[in-house]
């Protein structure tokens, strides 16, 4: 099961954020990657707080290529096609497509993944890792990822933490999900 998160809080040539994310799903499918399940769209405060306008967020299940690196390359290409330019980390953006998980694979290894998980918000001050890290090291901390992910993969179990999406969402504080609403 390939899991992705989608987010946008700036307009693109495709339109406002919600239209941009719809265009992103269409572009993913046009690349030969099936989208068998997708969540509803959610409105969520920008993260970190004060970093821009509210986001539109969602999640999807993909099926297709057998290599996570191939999926990531396609996601990055779709972002570029929609006008994303990488600059400020955790800033406002036209389109953000994050590869969250690729089945139960842990990449590059559990030790590296745990080290990135341990960084917490300090990871935002660091350069993005050179290698793909799976599962996404922050997914268990972010309600704006877990809320829509629970719509499409509530029983997917994090291979390092041993907890399902539903369990990770339940473990968050009520404040973590404040301001997240279905559109």
Characterization of this structure:
With 183 residues, the chain is of the alpha+beta class. It has a single domain (2-182), classed as Alpha-Beta Plaits (2-Layer Sandwich). Helices cover 30% and strands 18% of the residues. The protein contains 5 helices and 6 strands. Strands 1, 2, 3, 4, 5 and 6 form a 6-stranded antiparallel beta sheet that branches. Helix 4 runs antiparallel to helix 5.
Strand content: 15-25%
Question: Mean of residue pLDDT?
Answer: 90
CATH fold name, please?
Alpha-Beta Plaits
Task: Please summarize the sheet with the most strands.
Answer: 6 strands, antiparallel
Assign the structural class, choosing from mainly alpha, mainly beta, alpha/beta, alpha+beta, or little secondary structure: alpha+beta
Order of helices and strands: EHEEEHEHHHE
Q: What is the overall silhouette?
A: globular
Number of strands: 6
In CATH, the architecture is 2-Layer Sandwich
Q: Report, as a whole number of angstroms, the end-to-end distance.
A: 26 Å
Question: Spans of 5+ residues with little confidence (pLDDT < 50)?
Answer: none
Gyration radius (Cα, Å) is: 15 Å
Helical percent range?
Answer: 25-40%
The number of helical segments is 5
Q: How many domains make up the 3D coordinates?
A: 1
Main CATH class: Alpha Beta
Present the secondary structure layout.
Layout: E1 2-8, H1 17-30, E2 34-38, E3 42-44, E4 55-63, H2 68-81, E5 96-102, H3 110-118, H4 143-152, H5 165-171, E6 181-182
Helix pairs in contact: 4-5
């Amino acid at each position: 099961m390939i899991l992705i998160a989608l987010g946008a809080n700036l307009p693109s040539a495709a339109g406002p954020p919600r239209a941009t994310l719809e265009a992103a799903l269409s572009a993913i499918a046009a690349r030969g990657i099936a989208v068998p399940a997708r969540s509803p769209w959610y409105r969520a405060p920008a993260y970190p707080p004060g970093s821009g306008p509210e986001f539109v967020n969602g999640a999807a299940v993909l099926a297709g290529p057998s290599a996570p690196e191939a999926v990531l390359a396609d996601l990055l290409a779709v972002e570029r096609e929609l006008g994303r330019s990488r600059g400020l980390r955790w800033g406002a953006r036209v389109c953000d497509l994050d590869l969250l998980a690729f089945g139960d694979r842990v990449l590059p290894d559990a030790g590296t993944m745990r080290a990135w998980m341990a960084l917490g918000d300090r990871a935002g001050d660091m350069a993005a890792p050179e290698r793909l890290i799976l599962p996404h090291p922050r997914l268990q901390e972010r309600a704006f990822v877990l809320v829509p992910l629970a719509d499409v993969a509530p029983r997917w179990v994090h291979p390092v933490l041993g907890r399902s999406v539903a369990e990770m969402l339940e473990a968050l504080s009520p404040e973590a999900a404040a301001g997240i609403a279905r559109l």
